[in-house]
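Subject: TonB-dependent receptor

B.,
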Amino acid sequence: MHTRRFFFIVSFLLAVISAKGQQLPTNQSNSTAKGQITSTLVDSTTHLPVPFATVALLSETGTILTGQTTNDAGHFTFSELALGTYGLQITYVGYQPRILTGLSLTSSQPVRSLGRLLLRPESRQLNEVRVTSQKALIEEKSDRLVYNAGSDITNKGGTAVDVLRKAPMLTVDVSGNVQIRGSSSIKVLLNGRPSGLLARNLSEALKMIPANTIQSVEVITSPAARYDAEGAGGVINIITKKQLKGSNGSLDVTAGNYVQSLGGSYGLKRDKFGLTFSGNTNAEREKSIIDVTRTSLVNGQTAGELFQRTSANNIHPGWFGDLSMEYAFDTLNRVNLSISSWGGAWPTSNTGFYRFRNAENRVTQEYNQVVDQQNPFGNIEGNLAYTRAFRKPKQELSFLGQYSYTFDNSHYSSNQFSLTEQPLYRETSTNRSHNPQWTWQIDYIHPFSRNGQQVFEVGAKMVRRDVSSLYEVYTSQPDNVALLLLSTDRSNTFTYDQQVAAGYASLKLVNRTFWTLQLGTRLENTTMSGQFKHSISPFRVQFTNFIPSIILSKQLTEQQSVKLTYTQRISRPMIWDLNPYINASDPKNLMAGNRQLRPELAHLTEISYSLTTPKGAYLNLALYRRQTDNSIDDVRSVDTSGVSLTTRQNVARNERTGLNINAAGQLGRNWKINGGGEFYYAQFNSPALQVQNSGWLWQFTLNLAYQLPRQYTLQANGIYSTGWILLQGKNSAWYDYSLAVRKEFWDKKANLTLGINNPFTYPFRQQNESQSATFRAYTANQYFTRSLKLTFSWQFGQVRSAPDEPVRKITNDDTRSK
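Prediction pasted inline below.
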């Protein structure tokens, strides 16, 4: 039913677009009355295309008539022009402006193809100049939507969580959990490469990255073949701010009641050599109160009822440092080396009250509990890349390697007391995990045409992960609470190996009528094996996935385009999904891995339409459908004593059909506005559990910015969501909003930003209802998110503007976080 409805909507939208496209030949029916100017911009030094440069069409008297930006291949075309004489004005940051005049279109020569136009890099010295122009908050590129976080002052003093909350097509709840169109199976990259930190606990790891360092966020919902197939939802690429040529740095200090941070960077970049260091330390506070009422069921009848209230108030400290070096032997050969390290702790300590009533409604358990849970971690990784460019634009060969080592330890101690403060039960546990990882990759790009529009890509990759987990549990004895003894049936050593070998090929074709077809295929072979020191039998699984991808797009006019995509994605279970270690820090709410997990497969289809007006207004509509077979979902069961066990299982199929809307523009001279929304239908179906859950949902985001005199800027941001559907339940609506004011001074080299989050909400409340054959539960969450922060930012040094050189680094994007 829903499938037929989806394809009916797709057919209708295609018919509308087709009708729109068929109107163009009518305007061009008299070929002698219309003309065209077309060309490709290239760098005069490297002879590589210059994408996203601004090209303005001038009248014979020099008046600007219209404008556009070059595409990925540096190409632009002005069509439907009346016969006459025109000029072009070409500008781009880091290049010398160029103006062409006397371009005549006549009946005998209505088309002017200017071939390749050379742009010369700007090399003059600037004395402590700051680039103050701002990009639009939302931009569309050939295969992704880009949120330019550097243009959003409400991010000042925040973390990457605050930034992702405002990016298109992403949902970040009040706990920091990230989803793309409802899927938490995503790949998150940092500057196009993976991070061991981001792979383990995404919501916590994002709090380590200061928002001040983020330039943009790229959201890729239909990744091409060059991306790893891992991640059913898609790819998020976080781009940090780049180093300009020269010697310069920055300092950022934030003070607030919920977040404090100190960070900075310094870089030195010459013609052939570049060195950049950045570092940050921060601490973020999380405070919450959670009430749970859960009824145990046997054959539909009440077998007991648990009430619990837990309160948490934790400080999460963390730090990171990154050292990057690059050297260009000449214009065609360069090498990049980067070393980064992360560290911190994620305490989740809490206090709680528990009361359990049996089937006769008598209180059989009533106690207080104190849990001290610590999770210190550390990561160090190195990337080495060599890139060989060729004289032909876009032709490139690269070799990449990466080594990453992560330790991820956890420890908890749980103590139960009677209401008269007498000790009842004690338990402690440690889990020491180590994860070394090697990656090798080779990529080759071969253009078939001088303009770089016909491109063939091919590559191969190998990943090896060797993970170990040593866990031990000690419990007290009924006759001696002070004595802790090893629980042998809950202690073990788990070693896990994973190898992924992949190869891909992709072909991109563009014709003269502005149709673009990109076909790709990726073949991945995965081997997973696990061994235990005692009691549990080993396992070994091997599988091969053939992943196709198709992207078909059409430039309808200079301002309008349409795109249709299809691809498949897979999600492999990682060690924390497979490890049978039971986390019993809360004895009434157990969590464990499942070594029987197998990968899930998702099918993604999307059709989108985009419009950009000459005045810069932007609109994107995307109709999509995602179907995930054998999906990995959290499944909870509850016994008659009120104890729940949550594991991940391959027991369901989930589907999601929706419409995304993203828009941006300017109201008057000083107002900027952008926002987006999503309306979708989600459905879960598990014959194994005899569970079905579905519903219609929507969400909406809005950003407003107003430029005041005397270098003041006001900005506001808000999001509202009706909640989300889960396999066994549903969450209620939630919202988040922030306000900020910024004052620039010292020649715009420094600024102060005062921000406040949720000033009229204390606390924020959210409910969750869930049920299955063994339980029925109601959860009331209170999150304390009202916060105030003041951020001082200072940029210093001398710079020379220069075109950015692409830096190739390993993109181990098969790692995901769920």
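The two ends are 30 Å apart (CA to CA).

T.
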